[in-house]
């Protein structure tokens, strides 16, 4: 049950985890955003989904190994559906961690704040994993993973049931030991409540434009686009992600767009917004 998409009930494929801690398949999440009038609503919590999350690598790699046969069929279903319905491709993510075996998966399950195995794991919209007790008061303004470092608008994600189920199933002893360690340290998860900073009501809204960094959709405030991207979907960033230089650290976006760090980023005009 923990490894099924909240929207379709099917086994997760290319899993994304919302700020509310709910897991969806990438294609199902995309369909929610494309079909919603306004912001999509979480099927489980009935809360609005503001960020289109990036795929969570650790959860994806676990599912590909643990349920290989099922994932093969799910891959074919979602790839065909996404292409036939929207003309988009799935993200390019490998089926295994960079390092072979348990060591590679354990590395992906480390909290990017503490460097320890994540306890009560939460997932940021970037796909980075943090322990619930490492979520700061006021949330994260940018991703603590320096290789990502996109804006996060004060995200304070809730614990992911799917990620915790992964840890308990694959690394039960290591997770129990981590729980004991956290208990001895006496740290509490006070701020992992599934919130983010609300943007001003009068901010410009660029309908149909999502940020390829943090995933905010639609982009509010400033919006930037890659003037040299040859793909129809384009490559876009919100103002904070552009200011943090996210476009200088990546070579693609959420839909496998062609983007290079030296491409020209141009600010969109207010005439292109709502």
Can you describe this structure?
- Helix 1 packs parallel to helix 3 (68-86) and helix 5 crosses helix 6.
- Strands 10-9-11 form a three-stranded antiparallel sheet.
- Helices cover 28% and strands 12% of the residues.
- The mean pLDDT is 93.
- The chain has 274 residues and is of the alpha+beta class.
- The protein has seven helices and eleven strands.
Alpha-beta classification? alpha+beta
Envelope shape: globular
Measured as a percent range, the helix fraction is: 25-40%
The low-confidence runs, each spanning 5 or more residues with pLDDT under 50, are none
Compute the average pLDDT.
93
What integer value in Å does the Rg equal?
18 Å
Strand order of the largest sheet: 10-9-11
Tell me the major beta sheet: 3 strands, antiparallel
Query: H/E order of the elements?
Result: EEHHHHEEEEHHEEEEHE
Query: Beta fraction of the residues?
Result: 5-15%
The N- to C-terminal Cα distance equals 40 Å
Task: Give a count of the beta strands, DSSP E runs of length 2 or more.
Answer: 11
Count of helix runs: 7
Can you describe this structure in just a few lines?
The protein has 274 residues and is an alpha+beta fold.
């Amino acid at each position: 049950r923990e490894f099924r998409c909240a929207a379709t009930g099917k086994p997760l494929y290319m899993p994304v985890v919302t700020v509310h801690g709910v897991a969806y398949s990438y294609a199902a999440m995309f369909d929610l955003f494309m079909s919603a009038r306004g912001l999509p609503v979480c099927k489980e919590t009935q809360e609005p989904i503001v960020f289109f999350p990036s795929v969570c690598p650790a959860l994806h790699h676990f599912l590909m190994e643990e349920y290989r046969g099922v994932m093969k069929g799910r891959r074919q279903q979602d790839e065909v559906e996404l292409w036939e319905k929207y003309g988009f491709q799935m993200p390019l993510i490998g089926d295994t961690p960079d390092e072979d075996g348990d060591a590679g998966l354990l590395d992906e399950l480390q909290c990017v704040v503490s460097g320890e195995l994540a306890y009560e794991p939460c997932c940021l919209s970037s796909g980075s994993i943090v322990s619930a007790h490492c979520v700061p008061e006021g949330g994260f303004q940018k991703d603590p993973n320096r290789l990502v470092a996109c804006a996060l608008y004060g995200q304070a994600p809730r614990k992911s049931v799917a990620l915790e189920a992964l840890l308990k199933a694959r690394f039960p002893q290591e997770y129990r030991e981590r729980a004991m360690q956290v208990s001895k340290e006496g740290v509490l998860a006070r701020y992992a409540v599934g919130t983010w900073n609300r943007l001003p009501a009068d901010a410009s809204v660029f309908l149909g434009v999502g940020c390829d960094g943090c995933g905010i959709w639609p982009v509010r405030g400033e919006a930037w686009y890659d003037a040299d991207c040859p793909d129809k979907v384009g490559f876009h960033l919100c103002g904070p992600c552009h200011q943090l230089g996210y476009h200088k650290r990546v070579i693609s976006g959420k839909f496998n767009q062609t983007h290079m760090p030296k491409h020209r980023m141009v600010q969109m005009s207010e005439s292109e917004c709502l």
